[in-house]
Every structure is written in C-alpha cells, then in structure tokens.
Design a protein that fits this description.
By secondary structure, this protein is an alpha/beta fold. About 20% of the residues lie in helices and about 30% in strands. The chain is built from three helices and ten strands; from the N terminus they run αββββββαβαβββ. The strands form four sheets. Strands 3-9-10 form a three-stranded mixed β-sheet, with no helix packed on it. A three-stranded mixed β-sheet has the order 6-5-7. The radius of gyration is 19 Å and the shape is globular. The relative contact order is 0.22.
C-alpha cells in the first residue's frame, strides 16, 4: 500500500519564530528538520535500509549497554488533537487505542497526547496515531554505545543495523539513531 501524500489547510494565527512554524508543519508529515552546516529533512517512511552497520569492530570496548523498556514507558493509546478543516478550523481530538497493548500492560490505558497543528483531515490524524502505536508496540529494548570516528557523521533518525555478541549468542537488531 502506498502511503498517501500529506495535505494541509492551516492558518497561522499565533506569532512565533519561523523555525517553530516550519517544525509544526513538518511534524505532521512525520518529518524532522535537522539543522547544522546544511539543513536536512529526515522523512520517516517504510522501506528504508540501514545506512551503517555496528558490530564489535567499530564499537568501543566496554561501552555497549542494553536496557529493557519499562512498562510505564509503553504507550498503548494515542490522543491526537488536530484542526478540523470541515468544522471551521476548530480543534478536535481523536483517540486511537491498541486493545492488545492495553491488556498486556496491566490493563491501564496510558495515552500520549499529540497536537498536530498542520493536520486538517481526520484520516491523517488516525494514520499518524496508528504509526506511533506501531512504533511503541515493537520498541522493547534500548541500546547505547560509543563508536569510533568513522560513524560520527550519522544523523538523528538514520536507520542502522546492530550486531553484537552478548553472553555467547550473537543477536542482530535494527533501529534508528536517537542522539
């Protein structure tokens, strides 16, 4: 299924920095603006391949750490506030839940509230919430490690592959660069 393009019908009613308005529009499209010497747009889309592989050869010894995701950190519901174009630009809230995640996380609904100012269609708000729920469902571990200079040019959001020997077993993981 091809992902639909993003459509917005927004009006800027508050005074703020230009970069803040740009980030609001980009966040509705699952895009992150990465400033630096050059400005990069990172678009979170399916079908991306790892740009770098990390293993024992390029991870500094003694810096690899694994953490599990605590139950309190698992989001099992998303409340999205968006501007409804068809209702005179009034803000509306939709809730998208994952019943299996709620059951598996002690039966308590743990919502994350997201405001998407550039989204003006109900279907886009639902799609955004479903994407966040899917990410929360499969995120179960966090890894941190230090690397040599050859990998320092990776940007936030880049997809990477990780293969590291722990406790006599070799595991392979994939994920995105967070910091």
């Amino acid at each position: 299924i091809k992902e639909r393009r993003y459509v917005t019908s927004m009006s800027i009613t508050q005074q703020a920095k230009t970069i803040d308005h740009i980030n609001k529009v980009l966040s509705a499209c699952s895009t992150v603006l990465i400033p630096g010497d050059k400005i990069y747009l990172h678009v979170d889309r399916p079908g991306r391949y790892p740009v770098h592989v990390f293993n024992e050869t390029n991870i500094i010894d003694g810096t690899f750490m694994t953490k599990g995701v605590r139950e309190e950190e698992i989001v099992n519901a998303i409340d999205v506030v968006y501007t409804n174009f068809g209702n005179h630009y009034k803000p509306e809230t939709i809730s998208v839940d994952n019943a299996k995640l709620i059951t598996s996380t002690s039966g308590i609904r743990k919502p994350l509230q997201v405001t998407l100012e550039a989204v003006s269609r109900h279907s886009e708000a639902v799609r955004f919430a479903q994407k966040l729920l899917a990410k929360s469902k499969y995120k179960r571990r966090k890894y941190s490690f230090s690397v040599f200079e050859d990998a320092r040019d990776l940007g936030i959001g880049e997809v990477v592959s990780l293969s590291y020997r722990t406790a006599g077993t070799r595991y392979g993981y994939g994920g995105q660069v967070k910091t």
